[in-house]
Design a protein that fits this description.
The complex is a heterodimer of chains A (about 350) and B (about 325). Chain A is built from 11 helices and 7 strands. Chain A has about 350 residues and is α/β, with parallel strands linked by helices. In chain A, a hairpin with a 2-residue loop joins strand 4 and strand 5. The longest helix of chain A has 26 residues. The radius of gyration of chain A is 20 Å and the shape is globular. The radius of gyration of chain B is 20 Å and the shape is globular. Chain B is built from 11 helices and 14 strands. Chain B folds into 2 domains: about 180 residues, Thiamin diphosphate (ThDP)-binding fold, Pyr/PP domains (Rossmann fold), CATH 3.40.50.970; about 130 residues, Rossmann fold (3-Layer(aba) Sandwich), CATH 3.40.50.920. In chain B, helix 3 packs parallel to helix 4 and helix 8 crosses helix 9. Chain B has about 325 residues and is α/β, with parallel strands linked by helices. Classes of the chains: A alpha/beta (about 350), B alpha/beta (about 325). At the A-B interface, helix 5 and helix 6 of A face helix 3 and helix 4 of B.
Chain lengths: ~350, ~325
Amino acid sequence: MPYQKKEFPNRFTALQKDAMHNLLRTMIRIRTFESRVEELFLNKKIPGFVHLYIGEEAIATGVMANLRKDDWITSTHRGHGHAIAKGAQTDRMMAELFGRKTGYCKGKGGSMHIADFSVGMLGANGVVGGGFNIAVGAGISSLIKKTDQVAVCFFGDGASNRGTFHEALNLAAVWKLPVLFVNENNQYASTTPTSFATSAERIADRAKGYGIEGYTVDGNNVIEVYNAASALIEAARKGKGPALLECLTYRIKGHYVGDPEKYRTKEEVQKHFVENNPITRYINYLKDKNLITDAEIDAIQAEASSEIAAAERFAEESPFPEPEDALDDLFSFSPQEFPEAVR
Amino acid sequence: MRTISFSQATLEAMQEEMRRDPTVFVYGEDIVRQGGIFGQFKGLPEEFGDRIRDVPISETAIVGAALGAALTGTRPVADMHFADFIGVAFDEIANQIAKNRYMFGGQANIPLVIRAPDGISKQAAAQHSQSVEGWVQNIPGLIVVAPSSPATAKGLLKSAIRQNDPVIFFEHKVLYPQKGPVPDGEYFTPIGKAEIRKPGTDVTLVTYSIMVQKSEEVAMELEKEGISVEIIDLLTLKPFDTATILESVKKTHRCVVAHEAVVSGGLGAEIAARIQEKAFFHLDAPVLRVGAKDRPIPFSPVLENYIAAQKDDIRKAIYAVLYREG
């Protein structure tokens, strides 16, 4: 699938070595979290549905490295990676996946509704395309409050076929909102290949219809994602309006854990995993340039492993909510104040 | 007390709240250039600049963006133009706005108002005449209000804007030009509380929005026949004030519920159900419902009148619960 490459200023090279290592650290933390979540789901420790971000880590990582804590993101059903990269704690995330009281949503949301509003992560969303207009609304907030906060909307290739995509991009363009729409084109909408379901050759091409800039980058190259996001987020912050960034990637795991994956071959998946693994690719780059040592890589991996093991322990040791906690959190007032409201 | 129109009353509520709080803003179709189809936004652009905005015809974005704005520190008021268009944004209302606080464990307040002009007016036919409170009645997480007069319009809109939860504000189009007394100075109509419009002893008539005045007219006429009707104006449709209804029914032992919306699956059904759950042995007659026949609203006045609930339907229902001949 050919596409026009846009050369963004290479701001990555200006990063300190620590910041470069942080990109790797975030990707490895996401991968470690997701790999363990898969095992825990298969071991029946985690109920419900789980959609893994394995293979797509470079996108959340490269984009989020350009955001401030007070910027906002909206996420998808495949939202763990976005949450981690935006600064959510893995222990409270794991507790949520376990359905515990200490989870981010006190056990009311689970994987598909993971969120940490305190770091600007405005929620995973169970409705495909549900985040577009929430991000637009956050952009409006920035305008009304006259701040320079930016909103980033992550969405999949399937979501670009929703009506919400159209209304959100048009409104964001008309009002010049500080919103970056980041498409994670992982080639599949559940079981349906993008090539079958999406009329445009490139999702980025759709930007033209809204009079905004649209670019395609290699979403498994964290440096490319970082540089593109850096330029587009800076433009949005300066009031230049929204843009659409399509990041090409590949969904290494099934749509959900347990997906029989009858719509593609094991060879296809394996080829991507070996040749197009964003973590391996970034490690190879850093090693080539002598920007990281094996010992440093091992340390990052070990740190991530112990963090996720601790997160799992925290979740395991956390209490379940009380059954009647299910009545709380519907409104800003308590059931005692307004009993009719929770009847 | 002053006498002002319903639309002027809502305008005052907007002005007062926008002056007080710079994070309150309003947007919708045709509200800046046109001042709203009923003039309910006139003058706001001059005073508040870009805190009142025209939007593209994009109801999904209008409603969805209200959520994003509310989550990030502002208090949006989104105007739907016509309540019927809530259908275009139903996922945003049912799956995003209503569920946000709960499914994320109460992480954020959601101070947003969706203004939705509803009801039968000027033969606007099937897609511009509906009362759609039934659509949202069974979605946990929403507050729904419907004023019946200029005074309650102002008081409820101010309460809605201050509420840290999503509020749908149904405003009947026929009410906009109507004038009525409105208190001087600031006041609020509390959410969740019904008001007794007219005390009575024989029958409880539970109603809201445009049907309040129709109910009052019927009650005045019946008074001459020696029938004393107690009229309860619900004001908040969700969560509605069960206590006031039950107290009245325990006194009158008879109840009629009247609304403009279709009877099937309407608010009347829920009210009747709650009365029989909580006050069955106080009842001397079944609770009767008055509302539109189970059809879309047709165009021709002859047809429209036939489908819509009329004053005569209220009168007949009251006779029926009193076991009287109409």
